[in-house]
């Protein structure tokens, strides 16, 4: 009896030691994977350039009200003044400082882009992993719905959705997110179809793991890389879509300074006041270019296939 108790205690100690060793091995593997990613990113100069630009723009978006030299709605200046030391980007047709409005507009554009991309990655990811894992009629029904979204151009679909829901910040975010759900759903579905047939997934199912556990613990971590790459592209696409909708008069509140609104206001003064359209347009181009550079660098570093840029 004493020997049996000692054997049980020894087995328990071995199990605890094995569990601790597994946890240590998993932690060391995660750290080594992180170090490998950092080494790869350091070799991707375009990713570093894009990350630096995005970081600077993010700081402008966060601290915009403190950085802007004037209130964005202040119209105490002369109309259509050319760029000068006092007004680096000139003034618009209402006598407002364009530099201040572009700075404040950075926060709005970034917020819309990131929120829309976040909603799209969650909704599209759930649809894609469900369709890819279960297959059958679930996959067929989800794929047909995604193909229906895919058939419409993004801007046309976003315009239609805003026309249905109405203009406004929240409606614009939802419309852009719905327009880009199909991109994430297709990527996740394709990856899941491959991952569900891998040995580690089949072993987990054979050991009695539930479907949700398999999708969250075994398939989900392998989807982080392609989703991260697509997310960087989707933010740029969201900023472009928001600027386009605002330019068409279907964006956020007309009194809110955004890059698209500045473009809209400057289209009637292109000949005599080129700066009203040029500087907001440059802000959009630089931001989207930086996000594309970051996405390209992440795609190369993570060796992700099947993810497209803007």
Q: How would you portray this structure in words?
A:
There is one protein chain. By secondary structure, the chain is an all-alpha fold. The protein has a single domain (46-302), classed as MetI-like fold (Orthogonal Bundle), CATH 1.10.3720.10. It is 75% helix and 0% strand. It has eleven helices and no strands. It has helices at residues 2-43, 45-67, 98-134, 136-151, 154-165, 169-195, 199-206, 211-219, 224-247, 259-266, 275-302. The longest helix is centred in the first third of the chain and has 42 residues, at 2-43. It is elongated and about 75 Å long. Mean pLDDT is 81; it is low at 1-32.
What top-tier CATH class fits best? Mainly Alpha
Give the helix level as a range of percent: over 70%
CATH third-level topology: MetI-like fold
Largest sheet: none
Query: Any guess at the CATH architecture?
Result: Orthogonal Bundle
Say what oligomer this is. Answer: single chain
**Estimated radius of gyration:** 25 Å
User: What do the pLDDT scores average to?
Assistant: 81
Structural class: mainly alpha
Write out key terms for the chains shown.
MetI-like fold, 11 helices, 0% strand, elongated
Task: Map the helices and strands.
Layout: H1 2-43, H2 45-67, H3 98-134, H4 136-151, H5 154-165, H6 169-195, H7 199-206, H8 211-219, H9 224-247, H10 259-266, H11 275-302
Helix pairs in contact: 1-11, 2-3, 2-11, 3-4, 3-6, 3-9, 3-11, 4-6, 5-6, 6-9, 7-8, 9-10, 9-11, 10-11
């Amino acid at each position: 009896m004493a020997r049996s108790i000692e054997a049980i205690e020894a087995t328990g100690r071995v199990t605890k030691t094995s569990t601790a060793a597994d946890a240590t091995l998993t932690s060391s593997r995660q750290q080594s994977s992180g170090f490998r990613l950092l080494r790869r990113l350091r070799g991707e100069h375009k990713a570093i350039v894009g990350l630096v630009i995005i970081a600077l723009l993010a700081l402008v978006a966060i601290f915009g009200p403190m950085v802007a030299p004037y209130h964005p709605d202040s119209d105490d200046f002369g109309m259509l003044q050319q760029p000068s030391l006092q007004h680096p980007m000139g003034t618009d047709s209402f006598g407002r400082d364009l530099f201040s409005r572009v700075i404040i507009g950075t926060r709005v554009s970034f917020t819309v882009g990131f929120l829309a991309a976040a909603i799209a990655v969650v909704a599209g990811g759930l649809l894609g992993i469900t369709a890819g894992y279960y297959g059958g009629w679930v996959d067929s029904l989800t794929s047909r719905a995604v193909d229906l979204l895919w058939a419409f151009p993004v801007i046309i679909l976003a315009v239609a959705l805003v026309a249905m829901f109405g203009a406004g910040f929240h409606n614009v975010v939802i419309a852009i997110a719905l327009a880009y759900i199909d991109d994430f759903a297709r990527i996740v579905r394709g990856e899941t179809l491959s991952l569900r047939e891998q040995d580690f997934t089949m072993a987990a199912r054979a050991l009695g793991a539930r479907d949700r556990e398999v999708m969250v613990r075994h398939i989900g971590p392998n989807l982080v890389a392609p989703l991260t790459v697509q997310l960087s592209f989707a933010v740029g696409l969201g900023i472009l879509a928001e600027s386009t909708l605002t330019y068409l008069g279907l964006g956020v509140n007309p009194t809110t300074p955004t890059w698209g609104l500045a473009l809209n206001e400057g289209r009637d003064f292109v000949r005599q006041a080129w700066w009203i359209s040029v500087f907001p347009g440059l802000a959009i181009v630089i931001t989207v270019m930086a996000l594309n550079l970051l996405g390209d660098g992440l795609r190369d570093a993570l060796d992700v296939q099947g993810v497209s840029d803007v």
